[in-house]
Amino acid sequence: MAPRGRQWLKVLGAAGVMGVAASGLLAARTERRRRAYEPEEIRERLHERYARIQSRRESGAD
């Protein structure tokens, strides 16, 4: 049975909501890919962070 009258508005609204949700998912996926780091980058950052912490401890600042 085909939608009638106001039912078309509900169907159109539901389709719009689904389109917005799908667009949000695609944008989030693209952002995750853009922010993805290589293992070497992560390792380098961790080593830098560890060195900073150690230098603070040695200088006596907590």
Architecture overview:
The chain has 62 residues and is mostly helical. It has a domain at 33-62. Helix content is 82%, strand content 0%. It is built from two helices and no strands. The chain has helices at residues 6-35, 39-59. It is rod-shaped, with a radius of gyration of 25 Å. The model has no long low-confidence stretch (mean pLDDT 86).
What's the total count of β strands?
0
Average the pLDDT over all residues and give the rounded result: 86
List unreliable stretches of 5+ residues: none
- Class by SSE composition: mainly alpha
State the major sheet.
Answer: none
Helix fraction, binned, reads: over 70%
Shape: rod-shaped
**What is the terminal-to-terminal distance?**
71 Å
- Secondary-structure element string: HH
Summarize the structure.
With 62 residues, the chain is mainly α. It has two helices and no strands.
Give the topology.
Elements: H1 6-35, H2 39-59
What distinguishing features does this structure have?
single chain; 62 residues; mainly alpha; 0% strand
